Amino acid sequence: TGSSLIRSSERILGAYLLDTSDGTLTSSRSSGLAVFLSVGIVLGLVTAGSIYGTRQERERKWLVSRLYMGSICACYILAIFSVPKIRSVLASPDLVVTFQVMAIVAAGFGISVLYYHIPSLVCATFGCDKALAVSYVDGVACGVSAIVWQFVGDMVHQGGSDGGGWSYGWAAVALFLLITAVLMVEFMEHYFCRPHHGGSLETIILA
After folding, report:
1. How far apart are CA 33 and CA 7, in angstroms?
2. What percent of the chain has pLDDT over 90?
């Protein structure tokens, strides 16, 4: 669900960049920069995806927790550069956009394995019902994402025309992503790691 939330952010990244550019970006250019989320996903699939496929269960869980942390940090970076005072201190809109684009790439990189690999591997265990399992997973993820983005939209609207509301929105997204990260790592620990390897319990903090 958390990875689906970031994946669906591609639809609003153009508005975020436009609102926080202080008038230096056009709507067409800001919308085009949203493609860097897909760039990050492709890079993640090529690198982290290859690593994930060659690792054992506990190493996979370790990788997943680190990828989640990368995406969470990227969301907080987007939140930081939404604060008008920070943008005014830097006094360089182009530099702000550069940092924002780098954070977008990092967010895409972090969700690549989480969005494309793990759901497919989990749903494959359902045998003949794997297609139904995939549809349920997608349905729940889309529904939850819609609720979260509605909440973010309300905060952006209340934040004013300077784009300051985006800081609260991205902070909320990062918090939600942290919760889903804990749930995912615990799921992998109990259903993939413990049955095969046993040993001591590892959480996202101890992974």
Report:
1. 15
2. 39
